[in-house]
Amino acid sequence: MKKILSSFSMIFLISMNAFGQNIPLDPSVRIGTLSNGMKYYIKKNTLPEKKVDLRLVINVGSILEDDNQRGLAHFMEHMNFNGTKNFPNNKLVDFLQSIGVKFGQHLNAATSFDETIYMLPVPLDKPGNLDAGLKVIEDWAFNATLSDEQINKERGVVLEELRLGLGPDKRMQDKYLPKLLYKSQYAERLPIGKKDILENFKPDLLRKFHHDWYRPDLMAVVVVGDINVNEIEKKIRDNFSKYKNPSNPKERKSFDLPNHKETLVAIETDADATNSTVQFIIKDSEAYQPDVTVQQYDQSLTEGLVNMMLNNRLEELVNSTNPPFTYGSVYHGGTYARSKEAFQGAAVTKDGDQLNALKILLEEVERAKRFGFTQSELDRAKDQMLSSYEWAYNNRDKTQSGDLSNEYISNFLKKDPIPGITWGYEHIKKVLPTFTLKQTNEVITKFVKDDSRVIVITGPQKDTIKMPTEATVLTTFDAVKLADLKPYEEKAKAENLIQPFKSEGKIITTEADSKLGTTTWTLSNGAKVTFKKTDFKDDEIIFSAISLGGVSLISDTDYNQTKFALDALLEAGLAGLSKTDLARYLAIKQTSVGSYVGDLTEGISGTSSKKDLKTAMELIYACFTALNYDPDSFNAYRTKKSAVLANVDSDPQYYFSNEYSKFINQKNPRFTNLEPTEKDWGNTDYKKAYDLYKQKFANAGNFHFYFVGNIDEEQLKTEVLQYIAALPTTGKSVTFKDTGYRAMTGEYTKMYKKGKEPKSLVTISYNGEAPYNEKEAMALSALGEVATIKVLEKLREEESGIYGGDASGVLSKIPYGAYDFTVNFPCGPENVDKLTKSAIAELQKFIDKGPEQKDLDKYKEGEYNEYNTGLKDNGFWLQWISKNQLDGSDKYDILNYPDKVKALTVKDLQDVAKKYLTKERKIAILMPEDGWQKAKKEEGKKKK
After folding, report:
1. pLDDT per position as a tens digit, 370-410
2. Is residue 941 over pLDDT 70?
3. Burial per residue of 120-145, b for 16 or more beta-carbon CB atoms within 10 angstroms, e otherwise
4. Is 366 in a helix, a strand, or coil?
5. CATH fold of 264-482, please?
6. For every residue of 450-502, which 3-state class applies, written as one string?
7. With pLDDT > 70 as the criterion, what percentage of the chain qualifies?
8. Among 165, 378, 731, 860, which has the highest number of CB atoms less than 10 A from its own CB?
9. How does residue 931 score in pLDDT terms, banded at 50, 70 and 90?
10. pLDDT band at 493 (very low <50, low <70, confident <90, very high)
11. At 646, is the secondary structure helix, strand, or coil?
């Protein structure tokens, strides 16, 4: 008997070696399939606490529409918010808002080519919310009412969403898609659909789509959160098993992105295009197969290393003093089609330089293919990959529910493996050291081939720009193969960022705040350090440093000469290391630090793992004391920025925002443009900006540092004494000042015309100076949230005139007391007058009667929901504990906030409406250049 077992074991082991051991499933997720074919994934996860992330995943998208249904997969997604069995008409959004779920921000859905996904995060602070959330998922899956009335009302909303996508990019896309998606169904099934079909389809067509495709065997329910797994599984089985599949179900076909021998080239231009781009794809010969075996998993890891090494090389080019393009990357991965992967590359270039960018992308690929990678490159990529896995593993018990849900969705739709981070980290530690240069070099060879290639070039149409021809694009491939290339040479990695030194810094005083759970040290150089230890993430520390002053303290001339250079300063690198050297030095570190000089403050912000806190402190120290001076890096930044912004005025929205900003800031000599023009660059002084930065960071005594996360106090103290306490100081206390400049006052309507598409944008605002009052500030903010609810209800749900819109109310304290209440919405030009009047009428209701209590209650529930989530978030605490340094607010506001929200009344909101929304009204409108009259005529034809 033992001999038989031994022989069987040998056969089994041989089989395992031949075909590969299967990747295990994460044992912490409960996966099951109901008798009707519906699948479910359930996992208990307590981040965020007292919340559950619900998803309905349907393996159906626009690719399955009939010719006369184009756009109806997406339309169906809309209809699930407009009437179901348990939530008729628009009661669903109303109900979810009443329990603190905000439409668009929390509650959402998405339709793509191959799938439709509904997302619903539900707070579990009240009994019944979980059952209600599952009832919503059930209704979305099976119980849409799809009445003629609601379908016809929703047409306008979907058409408005379609309208938002119109413009030069869409016009060019329509031309190049037939080549990019050559002979595939995808080219004919963009999810937004066809305008004429959306306007005219019979409601029965939508009901047919729902009947055919919204069925159990094509669905999965994902439930991740602070729940009882057994209880949820029982509820799913009890509530979802009763639904049946159609008696003769339509086949759920898969669609391919066909291969082709020839190289397809699309060169498209548009007079209003804002960017010049090039992209290539080289389709795989075989159809995509998900990783099932460990061997396949390891092959994917190897491909990931190759992607990383290639992009590290390209990043060096982008960060060089003579960058060939503003952005460039290559990778092997998914395409539009689920069944096909490809080797792909893309670059954003200056106008007319797309062919050169393509050549450089291909040359770097050819260089890797011809000479392979270096051992130091591979070691660095391995270290980068291991470092990211290690960080995820260290935070394995503090992963957001939404992130886990996305993994399970990929498993359902694409059969992607879900072994869990524990298995993944342990496996990668074992397997990474075994990967060789031979393996990675073989991968890059497989990526590149001569067939199934597509190149797409887009850019602005101008007489001054000569675009390449198809022939010159094709010869580029041949030229690259014959190019005189040299092997890549990588510089040695720097061993130190900051040379060791002895710090004389000390902690002078220590102050503990038991209410906030913070400790504050005052250092011998005058700097203050406040830290809060949390367990929200096991391996995360985030931090900031703030000093008051900013550019408010400099002259108008100096401001205009430095404002566009300040963002470029870190391009020079730190401590003698270039930006590329710095990236190489930090490659295996889980830390990032940035510095800034703003309007009212200067400061530092960043994040770090516990292990890399010392490196983070070195970066902080370098930002203060060792910013490089390199005019060439500034010129490279200017070149890249100019390439991106060369045609920005062609974008109607930017043009509108910039011109309106010029109008309201006409008395402010500090305002020129939202983004720099060539004239602005000509007036920019890099040396002056550098000197200003050095001056701002020469006084650490004016800075307050804040650290929040899983902090080891002794470790933090050691690093603070070594680096922060050693920073230079002048001993002076400085604050910001009010420059005295104000926006235009008065009541007016301004109209701007830009763009060829029938698209408009409306901004209604009330603003001016006003003494700060904390209660009024909260009431005005709440009024903005309530107004957003009413704008969507009235302009979207009732009038079907917009896809989205919002309102906001702010009463600010610094640098001077001021109020601003603004309503924004995009719409068709033919509806501008009507919808503007409707929006103003809604605001008038606030003035006359105040908001409805139910809408104020929705706002409150949303705030409680976000507040409770925020209490377990490091960033939330960092923002609140640093707030009072800037505005002088009560440092305990974070603890008192829910009570202040609860105390708000309808009268409070009505009072601020009366006070601020009856003052000077300002209206700004964007209209198309020549589409208004056309839109009016079309509207008139419809009415006839």
Report:
1. 999 999 999 999 999 999 999 999 999 999 999 999 999 99
2. no
3. bbbbbeeeebbebbbbbbbbbbbbbb
4. helix
5. Cytochrome Bc1 Complex; Chain A, domain 1 (3.30.830)
6. CCCEEEEEEEECCCCCCCCCHHHHHHHHHHHHHCCCCCCCCCCCCCCCCCCCC
7. 96
8. 378
9. low
10. confident
11. coil
Distance of CA 785 to the CA centre of its chain: 22
Domain boundaries, the chain: 30-240, 264-482, 507-560+593-629+644-724, 748-943
Alpha-carbon gap, residue 838 to 828, rounded angstroms: 15
Radius of gyration of the chain (CA): 30
| 710 vs 316: CA distance, rounded Å | 34
- Domain 30-240: give its CATH code: 3.30.830.10
Contact 928, 754 (CB under 8 A): yes
Instruction: Kindly give the pairing relationship between strand 51-58 and strand 116-123.
Output: antiparallel
Cα separations (Å) of 226 from 125, 665, 841, 876? Answer: 11, 50, 43, 21
Residue 82 half-sphere exposure toward CB, CA atoms < 13 A: 22
CATH architecture of 748-943: 2-Layer Sandwich (3.30)
Q: Are 867 and 897 in contact (CB under 8 A)?
A: yes
- Three-class secondary structure of residue 875 per DSSP: helix
* Secondary-structure class of domain 507-560+593-629+644-724 per CATH: alpha beta
Per residue in 408-455, pLDDT (tens digit) is: 999 999 999 999 999 999 999 999 999 999 999 999 999 999 999 999
- Answer whether residue 938 shows pLDDT above 90: no
Question: What's the token pair of residue 129?
Answer: 């919310």
Burial of 883 (0-12, 13-18, 19+ CB in 10 A): middle
pLDDT at 489 over 50: yes
**Rounded to an integer, what distance in angstroms lies between the CA atom of residue 559 and that of residue 555?**
6
Q: Dihedrals φ, ψ of 456, to 5°? A: -120, 125
Q: Which tens digit of pLDDT belongs to each residue from 239-288?
A: 999 999 999 999 999 999 999 999 999 999 999 999 999 999 999 999 99
